[in-house]
């Protein structure tokens, strides 16, 4: 699988399948390997692009730039692949990169699906204060309790271990990741013209479904997909439901273009 030399770092990416391009951007607990369920489900109808953010999976971060270079890295990979317009499925940390790219290069984004995340969004009050309380409450949880729902933790101990092992190949964790990214208001993001949607697990303790629902209402015509029995990593915990509903959302966007 290919690497792209960008400045002094190496960016790892994979391309699977054929069809309209869909870029999957992982969270802090993930990397390219986390998306195996989606690759298998979607490669027959989409070109699925997986990109390891610098310092995650097989990508390096020689500059120790962290998230400050995530969007520039994304531009470099998409240019290397000669992809002028893509759809994003962006989970947790990945949403910050997808939103920044969308607002900087709106002509290159057809659809933006924000998955279990509000990263990259300037939250209005009282939502911002509510999220501060949520973050404080989550501070004492273990990593598994943060990223996976209580149902999945109970029923899938082996897959829980796999999730944590995949994350173990990352250089960065949520506590060590550095750098900054620009955040945007809902109005700025909507002004990009990209079709926007949200996915949330109803057991997500980091970005609760009720708060994500309130934020979604600030985006005209945005669709909210709620997945039952899933926590912060809905794509991993409930892959069949995730793949079916997100796949349908992506197809709907293609039909409208």
Automatic annotation (TrEMBL):
A Pfam family that the UniProt record links to this protein: Abhydrolase_1
Alphabetized UniProt keyword annotations: Hydrolase
Residues in the signal sequence: none
Domain AB hydrolase-1: 20-122
Keyword Acetylation among UniProt keywords: no
Superkingdom in the source lineage: Bacteria
Enzyme nomenclature, EC number: 3.-.-.-
One GO molecular-function entry: hydrolase activity
Record-linked InterPro entries: AB_hydrolase, AB_hydrolase_1, AB_hydrolase_fold
DNA-binding as UniProt keyword: no
SUPFAM superfamilies attached to this UniProt entry: alpha/beta-Hydrolases
Protein's recorded name: AB hydrolase superfamily protein YdjP
Classification of source organism: Bacteria, Pseudomonadati, Pseudomonadota, Betaproteobacteria, Burkholderiales
């Amino acid at each position: 699988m290919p690497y792209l030399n960008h400045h002094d770092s190496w960016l790892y990416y994979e391309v699977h399948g054929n069809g309209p391009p869909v870029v999957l951007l992982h969270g802090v607990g993930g990397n390219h390997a986390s998306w195996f369920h989606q690759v298998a489900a979607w490669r027959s109808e989409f070109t699925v692009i997986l990109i390891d953010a610098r310092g995650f999976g097989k990508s390096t971060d020689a500059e120790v730039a962290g998230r400050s270079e995530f969007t520039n890295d994304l531009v470099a990979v998409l240019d290397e692949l000669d992809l002028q317009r893509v759809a994003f499925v962006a989970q947790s940390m990945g949403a910050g990169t997808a939103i920044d790219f969308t607002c900087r290069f709106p002509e290159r984004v057809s659809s933006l699906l924000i998955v279990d995340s509000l990263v990259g969004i300037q939250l209005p009050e009282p939502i911002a204060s509510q999220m501060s309380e949520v973050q404080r409450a989550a501070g004492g949880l273990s990593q598994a309790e943060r990223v996976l729902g209580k149902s999945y933790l109970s029923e899938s101990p082996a897959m829980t271990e796999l999730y944590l092992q995949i994350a173990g190949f990352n250089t960065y964790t949520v506590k060590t990741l550095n750098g900054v990214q620009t955040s945007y208001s809902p109005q700025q993001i909507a002004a990009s013209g990209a079709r926007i949607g949200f996915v949330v697990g109803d057991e997500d303790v980091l970005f609760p479904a009720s708060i994500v629902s309130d934020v979604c209402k600030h985006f005209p015509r945005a669709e909210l997909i709620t997945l039952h029995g899933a926590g912060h990593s809905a794509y991993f915990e409930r892959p069949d439901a995730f793949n079916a509903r997100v796949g349908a959302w992506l197809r709907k966007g293609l039909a409208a273009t």
